[in-house]
Design goal:
The complex is a heterodimer. Chain A is an all-alpha fold. Chain A is built from two helices and no strands. Chain B is mainly α. Chain B has one domain: Four Helix Bundle (Hemerythrin (Met), subunit A) (Up-down Bundle). In chain B, helix 3 (about 85-120) crosses helix 5 (about 150-165). Chain B is globular and about 60 Å long. The chains are: A mainly alpha, B mainly alpha.
Chain lengths: ~70, ~260
């Protein structure tokens, strides 16, 4: 630990604004990347369920007609 | 029979293989990156010239390094896709490009934020910064082309050609600090020389680099699996996989 206390850690020797801005934006960008990957998977899942239901409805209508 | 089976079996095998790697890659990436960043922020000593502002290096250098190596991987995938007509290599473009784009973005932004207190300016149109900005737009172009066509194969082809042509930018970025007078300093880490950096700063930097590399791997694996599912959505094995996911999700909501 090279900082005496929490205040010194946050202040970063006067460069706090720059250091935390850089780390904050980097963290946010990576979070967006992770979340977009997870939601893409969930979207595929939803599309698949929708398609599955459509197929079921079609099959049922076909049975009703015949 | 193998010839007939080959193209159908392969994406499924790769999907499941990557699925086995994914949790391990994600966990080791999170641990290594966490260690590197905390070490860099809290335990590494301040620089005698730059004070604590130099701590941006623990994000800036790893992302800048991988923004270039990921582009080379992108170009290799594009080359394999064009020459051997391997569709999985084409899909790799869609997996690698978003990760490379984000890393390039981070390297540019952290560089600008570091530049303000040290050089007195957020941005300068010098060789290193400009060529890195071009790399950013190359990634954007590859991604846009990939998704711009209704026929996926045409999109992959166009994106692949741009990826291969754009690789010329990589040596320009790498040697820009030697060929031109620029604000940006020379390379800190080289393969054959002992880096001019204190060990107490070098070790957390190396840990960070390893962490970002593992993170890139984990994210590419995640995106590659999504892309395989997306491309093969109408195949029976994908239906089986998604049905299983649906079943586990349903049982989870029932328990809750």
């Amino acid at each position: 630990m090279v900082f005496d206390n929490l205040q010194a850690f946050i202040a970063m020797g006067g460069y706090g604004f720059y250091v935390w801005l850089a780390f904050g934006i980097s963290f946010a960008a990576i979070a967006v990347l992770v979340i977009s990957g997870l939601t893409a998977r969930r979207k595929l899942q939803r599309e698949f369920v929708k398609e599955q239901r459509r197929q079921e409805r079609l099959a049922q209508r076909k049975r009703e007609v015949s | 029979m193998w010839r007939w089976l080959h193209p159908y079996a392969k994406p499924e095998v790769v999907y499941h293989l990557l699925g086995r790697w994914q949790p391990w890659l994600s966990i080791t990436a999170a641990l290594t990156l966490g260690l590197g960043i905390v070490w860099g922020l809290v335990f590494a000593p301040a620089d005698y010239q730059q004070g604590d502002s130099y701590r941006i290096i623990f994000v800036h250098v790893p992302t800048a390094m991988f923004s270039m190596s990921l582009y080379i991987a992108l170009a290799i995938a594009a080359f394999v896709g064009r020459v051997w007509q391997l569709k999985m290599a084409d899909w790799g473009l869609a997996a690698i490009a978003p990760v490379g784009l984000t890393f390039t973005f981070i390297s540019l932004v952290t560089g600008a934020i570091w530049g303000k207190p040290m050089w007195g300016t957020w941005w300068e149109w010098d060789a290193r910064l400009t060529s890195q900005l071009i790399l950013f737009f190359l990634y954007v172009g590859v991604l846009a082309l990939y998704h711009a066509f209704s026929d996926q194969r045409n999109g992959a082809k166009a994106a692949g050609i741009l990826a291969m042509v754009g690789v010329i930018n990589i040596p320009i970025i790498r040697y820009s600090v030697e060929w031109w007078n620029t604000l940006h300093q020379g390379a800190t880490l080289t393969v054959f020389e002992r880096p001019p950096m204190a060990t107490s700063m070098l070790i957390p930097l190396l840990v960070s680099i390893l962490g970002f590399g593992l993170l890139a791997g984990a994210l590419i694996v995640q995106r590659m699996r999504n892309e395989i599912l997306r491309q093969e959505l109408r195949r029976p094995w994908v239906k089986h996989v998604l049905n299983q996911d649906r079943a586990t999700e349903l049982s989870k909501t029932e328990q809750a």
